[in-house]
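Contributing new records

If you add data, match the layout below exactly. Sequence lines come first and carry their own label; structure lines follow with theirs. Keep one chain per record. Anything else will be rejected by the validation script.
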Amino acid sequence: MKLILILFSWVVLIGSTWLNPGKNNNAKRTKADSSVTQVIDQFSHRFAPDKRTAIFQIDAYRQKNQLILIGKTNLIGAKSFLLERLKNEKLEIVDQIRTLPAIELGEKVWGLVEVSVCNLRYSPRHSGEMASQALMGTPVRILDREDNGWLLIQTPDHYIAWVDRGAITAITTEQLNTWKAKSKVIYTNSFGTVYSESNNSSMPVSDIVAGCVMELKAEKNGYYEVILPDNRIGYVFSKEAELVKNWVNNTTATEDALVNTSKRLMGVPYLWGGTSFKGVDCSGFTKTVYFLNGILLPRDASQQVMVGETIDKSGVWSNLKEGDLLFFGEKREDGSERVVHVGMWIGNNQFIHASDKVRIGSVSASAPSFDEYNVKRYLRAKRILKTGSVVKLKTDSVYPQ
């Protein structure tokens, strides 16, 4: 019996080797020398310092006289520079790096968000941690696709995350350009509905929130007839929306406008990864406020602190103006900062932020709303208005027309 089992095992081993001829070769691979890995690390730090906005995941292995590179990147130029640099190693370079967008996607490497608010996640599954959100009509770059259909996308603020394929309409570059040339409307009310007919008693086609963008088909009876990104047709109250072209040209981010917009979100629940009226985290809140005033901020607090002009670092509140962003966190022993929270100054020694829900706190110890916890971890305030380090939709429109 033992002899039969041994012979059977030997046949299986030989058979698996014959069916997978590369398996034994892979087993002979060893990690590349530290000199090679250091070069790759240097390129990663140089071209993709923020893993949330760029992909440069490359590993190197030695196999006899070959240097095998595997991984993926969406930075084509950086990959080319790396290959040129590694020629100095005097080894045959085997390039197995996947360049994104993946070739398997074909020509449909762009997409439009087709639901009111789609949830972006750090991993390609519904149970994955939520990273951010994107609103209907947001154009995104499709980078990759999993077998389960989930798409790896990059949003206009360069954030990279996974999204359920049911939330995105995939399109070609030509289709994207055609869509950009169409007249569009942006929903400006906090919450609303796209109706199946031009009356509010008809069946809903979709819910919508402030910031959703739809193609304009016609205007009649006090409604905009709109086409959603997946070609559903519906009707939106014209009093609750505005032509994107007019909105972009007429929206001015003033101190008063920012404060008024921020207060529209009062009481909206805290949602990790949220950037909409359905729920916000701290940086999602400030991002939403600024977006509805024509300015595209980076996604996270640790990214938002990198834009604008530093106004205060010592808690001299008289230096601040409405709309300034306040950053909170901890100072490390080496003098660096770890930013973990952000809010917006609204005057009268008060700031508004998302913590449990969107609410107002005070920096005055005598005020009923005194926020001692955040005052103690205050790091700095930055002024976004009148600086050139942010994307302004008026000059860099995400939604032409």
